[in-house]
Amino acid sequence: MEFNEATNALLDGNKIRHIYWKDNNYIMLDSQGDIVNKFGNIYIIDKTDLMGSWELYQPKVTVGTLLSYYGSRYRIVINKRGKLDIVNTKTWGVFIGDVHMNKIDDTIKSLGMEVINDGSID
Domain residues of the chain, as ranges? Predict the structure, then answer.
C-alpha cells in the first residue's frame, strides 16, 4: 500500500511496516497520537517513507508465543502429534488443539487473540 493508505491504516488503529523492514518491526499510533516504533520511540516520517511501500504488520507466531484473550494468557505449544495447541498458562489446559502450523496465524486472528510476545529476540 502507498503511504496515504498506510496513514489511514494507522488512524484505524493498525500497526504497519515498510515492506523492506525486518518482519518484527512496525510503527503505530500511541495513546497521544504520535507515530512510534515497537519500542514506543517517536518515529519521524521522511521522504523515503512517503515514497515507499507499506503493509499491515502481522506478527509471526510460533511455538512459545504468548497470547492474550479476554484477560487470560495463552501459549502456543507443539503437541506429540506434531501440531500446535493453544494452552491456558494458568491451567495448562488446551484451549484449541491440533492446529496445523500453516493455520495458526488465521486461527489467532479469527478469535481476536492479541499477540503479547511473538518469541522474536530484538
Answer: 3-56, 66-117
